[in-house]
Amino acid sequence: MGIALSDKARLRSLEGRTPTVATLCSHSSLQIFHGARAEGLPTMGISVGPPARFYEAFPLARPDQFLTVEKVSALPHEQARLRDAGAILIPHGSFVEYLGPKAFQELDVPVFGNRAVIGWESDREKERVWLESAGVPMPKRYVDASEVDGPVILKYYGAKGGKGFFLAKNREALADFTPTGPYVIQEYVLGTRYYIHFFYSPLSDRGYRVGHGSLELLGMDRRDEANIDELYKLGAQEELLKAGIRPTFVVTGNVPVVLRESLLPKVFDVGARIVERSIELFGGMVGPFCVEGIMTENLDFKVFEISTRIVAGTNLFINGSPYSDLLQPGLSTGRRIAMEIKRAQAEGRLSEVLS
Ligand code: ATP
Fold first, then answer.
1. Does ligand 1 lie within 6 Å of residue 292's CB atom?
2. Atom 20 in ligand 1: which residue has the minimum CA distance?
3. In this structure, is residue 145 part of a structural domain?
4. Rounded CA gap, 265 and 268, in Å?
């Protein structure tokens, strides 16, 4: 038996009934609803204001019911309705960011995965402690601007989609940076970015074993980031600045990628270390997570960030990916979540996957 993430009281609303898969209408909600529907689970979309019309355009991904709130911050007032519906909330990047990590953690409604992870992920300092103590290679971090000895990226806390990040070619260029919140200074790593979609199942007893469960690789993507592009990121910066354009990393879309097969052991090792350390630090990370890193020309994989929930890059693979197809044809991350919920309920192990 694995670790219980929640006590029985929190899960009382699910006793003896089919759970409803609920999430905020945004980010990867189409995939989450589509996956739940494929597994025969009812779905609920939490909509801020009237539901977006595009749900009508996608009948296979339209939630069975909507819960409409005026603003996201009103959601805590709807907890009783969510519990009455037997809801299990599926966290995604926008859901946690819009509601706020603290408010999300305090919701008295069952959440898929371990909500304790939010505190570790939303604070870049804690995230670094977790990853470094797991032995995961990361970009160098500078405590003070005076130590900077190469190109750096200045990043704010939390998932802001790279908004407001600042690139400096050298220490001198840092003078142009005016911070608007807490930030970190990181080595700017040159290489190819990979966003690797993992799923950790504490229930599974086969496959790539980690802890009591197993680690699955469901897909990979790379992000399209406006208004800067790949190799030109550093070189063209001055030209852009001359034109009054400040480079940004705002995500506008995603493209599918695969990794050289010989590099797979490296990324599996990183994924396994992150999970193993999460079990020691806070009882484990359950379900989807994304390791975001850069493969250098020396084939070192440096991890600059992890997202501890479903990421929007998985939306590429609603019909499966070159990796998830090797687990089950057509498997999406959304469907994988629903499968885990169903299995946990059938085996009386909901407390191992919900918090
Ligand atoms: P999200 O939460 O949406 O993933 P974020 O605001 O947390 O975004 P990061 O993912 O840390 O930001 O970084 C945004 C982008 O900046 C990355 O996708 C990558 O292109 C670039 N980047 C971040 N760190 C580095 C680094 N150390 N070296 C080079 N590029 C980096």
1. yes
2. 249
3. no
4. 5
Sequential pLDDT tens for the chain (355 residues): 677 888 788 999 999 999 999 999 999 999 999 999 999 999 999 999 999 999 999 999 999 999 999 999 999 999 999 999 999 999 999 999 999 999 999 999 999 999 999 999 988 889 999 999 999 999 999 999 999 999 999 988 755 666 778 888 889 988 888 888 888 899 999 899 999 999 999 999 999 999 999 999 999 999 887 655 554 555 666 666 676 667 778 888 899 999 999 999 999 999 999 999 999 999 999 999 999 999 999 999 999 999 999 999 999 999 999 999 999 999 999 999 999 999 999 999 999 999 9
Ligand 1 proximity of 225 Cβ (cutoff 6 Å)? yes
Q: Which residues make beta-bridge pairs with 92? A: 310
In the reported structure, the alpha carbon of residue 121 is separated from the centroid of ligand 1 by a whole-number distance in angstroms of 14
Q: Would you say the CB of residue 315 lies under 6 angstroms from ligand 1?
A: no
Total domains in the fold of the chain:
1
Q: Which range marks the domain in which residue 87 is found?
A: 8-133+191-223+257-352
Token code pair at residue 309: 């929930």
d(CA 23, CA 199): 18
The domain that holds 111 is classified in CATH as: 3.30.470.20
Q: Is the dihedral of CA 26, 31, 35, 38 positive or negative?
A: positive
The answer to whether the Cα torsion of 12, 15, 20, 21 is positive or negative is positive
**pTM of the predicted protein model:** 0.93
